[in-house]
Amino acid sequence: MITSIKLLEANQILAQVLDSERGSEINVKKFCKLAACSRPTFYAHYGSMRQLSAELLLKKLDQHLYFATSDYSNGLKRLLTYMEKDRCFILNLLALIDAEKGKIKGKEFAARFPQKVEWLLRKKTVCYVDAHSLSGDYSIKTLNNAAHIIYAILYEWLAEGLQLSARDVYDRCQLAIEIVEEQTSKKALL
Question: Which domain of life is it from (predicted)?
Fold first, then answer.
């Protein structure tokens, strides 16, 4: 796992580069030149471009998906709005992950990337309901299913290049959002 400080540094470098180039055109050599570091230093800190890109994208999604002080739907809207606004950067990170497909280094991490995104959604959903539940009586299975529905919609949106608006994606997630909110308002059975 890459440290937060190293991810922040990489984010700054990649943000600078990905504004002018496509993600698939960035490689370790170019990154090292911009970061003023050697290849061994890169590999010691980041593992591979694929791992760096996947971890950076996970970190970005995690930062923009929070429900602490608001309802679930507003937290999801925040994430979708961020993804729409930073569309180019996100798609370039995905291109970096895909560009490395033929290479072994970071392959296992990148293969687990979709599962990590789904796990993040599940974890945040359960934490939200746990913090906001009126009775503490909710179904983890139901929450996991709702999070999976949202994940599937997000994954499809990413696969289609974020072509739909955040509002359209939010509308597709509405049933799952209602399921999550229903779990927070369940009353304990006596």
Answer: Bacteria
